[in-house]
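During the no-cost extension, the postdoctoral fellow (Dr. R.K.) reprocessed legacy sequence entries with the updated structure-token encoder. One reprocessed record is reproduced below for audit purposes.
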Amino acid sequence: MSIEANQTWLTSLKNVDNKEQLIMIQDRFFKPTRPIIKATDEDVPVMVVNGIPIHPEMDEGLRNFLATELIAEDIEIEVLDKEPEELLANKRWTGLILMNVTNKKTRKRMYKQN
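Re-encoded structure tokens follow.
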């Protein structure tokens, strides 16, 4: 995804409801039919789920769990599509997605996968 396409995707992600956000994130990051995104291949937002950074070499069990077991009612999603002025980074800003699993049972099952 190009810089512009990634920014458009982030903006649309920020402007939809929680359920649609989850679907968009799962389709882009976790679905098994999609090859694992490598940061060098395209512009990809940094994604963190309950403090766990999501990366191409992540455990397959955790990836499958995030693709299939999460429901919108059990999560909170924060999308930062614009670089915060206070942030100093050594790479181009590609966005940040913070996902928090709020349901204790779901969170416990997720940690078992990691």
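The chain has a mean pLDDT of 85. The beta strands are 46-49, 52-53, 75-80, 96-101. The remaining legacy entries will be reprocessed before the final report is submitted.
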